[in-house]
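Example pasted here:
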Amino acid sequence: MSRLEEESKRVKKQPPCGILNIHKPKGLTSRQVVNRIQRLAKPAKVGHAGTLDPMATGVLAVCVGRATRLVPYIQNYHKKYNAQFVLGKRSNTDDITGDVTEVPDFPEIRQSDIEKLLPQFRGIIQQTPPQFSAIHIDGKRAYQLARQGEQVDIPSRDVEVHELEMTQFDFPEFTLEMKCGSGTYVRSIGRDIGELLTCGAVMTDLVRTEIGPYNIANAVLLDDITEENWIGFLLPPSTAVCTLPSYHLTNADCQQVIHGRPVLLKEKITFPPKATVALFKEENQLAALAEYKPQENLLAPRVVFL
């Protein structure tokens, strides 16, 4: 019996709770990956944090059981991508999965031409999401309206790009490596670079290499997850809150948290006002997420995992 199977057998009597760092294959939607895990984990709830389109591969954080309550926190982490683009094309989806049109007779673009443009895509930038995106327009997803043939006016919005570098150039193709905040559309960055060059550009491949603490080097292939070993791949919920301030509970504190009651701090602790604090019991098990209330000097549970 393998180590993963032994670990699965040991915790099988407990309700499953944790995060699967899955390397999503090309051709599947994020929802299809969740459905596959759901069949293994039922009746536990399953959800993902951060959608990847079918053409994309890489890190997909899938939360199981009470860990689904951590989805918003994982979604807010930075994300890293490797994205490939080709110049001289335009698409209604900003990638090769849509209706692609060729741009005739465009001049040859040099590597330096693209590199000169990259600084304006770093930092907090204004970005218009693609027509085929999950943005809500009048109560509907933009992609639903686009599929009906409607040209929708999607307002631009602020997104943050922490890092952006070109790692490969072989005209007319180029590759970008980036680290960005939640809500950033990678294909839109390639599109906008192409428009500044007046020749267009579409994304041909996308790999998410990291979302917060979850990286592709430690991701498990979806086909390697089975009914016998899947629980052994679960990462503890604490991995999702590793950047939050923390507080370790006494046994008496744990009883307060279980019943949703606040934990009174015996000494003044300098958490930021209204900060979300991760509460831990023994063995670094995540017990709850709480809001710090400085005036009362207490931690009020908001999400309980016990």
Observations:
- Helices lie at 3-11, 30-41, 71-75, 111-115, 142-147, 186-196, 251-258.
